[in-house]
Amino acid sequence: MKLKLNEIDVDCILGELPEERVKTQRILVDVSLEISDLAGETDELADTVDYAALTEAIRAALVKAECRMLERAAKLVVETCLKFGRGKVFSATAAVTKTGAIPHLKSATVVAEGSVE
């Protein structure tokens, strides 16, 4: 079963340039998780991923990390998903999009993937 979280809105430090190190900017995060299908049978929150809590965990991790590279931010989101959903998340794909960083470029997105070993 897949769980998708679309356009998680995060204001955080992200970038290498001096001005990017002092001012937050908006990024969007999309997550796709392969999860247990147990909740489809039991209809119980305890048997699935609490996506409200996961969304906040992702936001908090990105704010705290103050990443320099979009690639690191995407990898961090995957790591957060796999740790948060231990036993309920089998794999995670995260797309982190940064808008307005470069003139004439609407956005840049990095996609990272990971799975439980």
**Proportion of strand residues:** 35-45%
Task: Output the strand order for the largest sheet.
Answer: 1-2-3-4
List the total number of helices.
3
Q: Provide the helix percentage.
A: 25-40%
Give a structural overview:
This protein is 30% helix and 40% strand. It is built from 3 helices and 4 strands. Strands 1-2-3-4 form a 4-stranded antiparallel β-sheet, with helices on one face. The chain has helices at 38-42, 51-65, 70-84, and strands at residues 2-12, 25-35, 89-102, 105-115. The chain is an alpha+beta fold.
Provide the fold topology:
Blueprint: E1 2-12, E2 25-35, H1 38-42, H2 51-65, H3 70-84, E3 89-102, E4 105-115
Antiparallel strand pairs: 1-2, 2-3, 3-4
Helix pairs in contact: 2-3
Compact description:
The protein has 117 residues and is of the alpha+beta class. The protein contains 3 helices and 4 strands, in the order E-E-H-H-H-E-E.
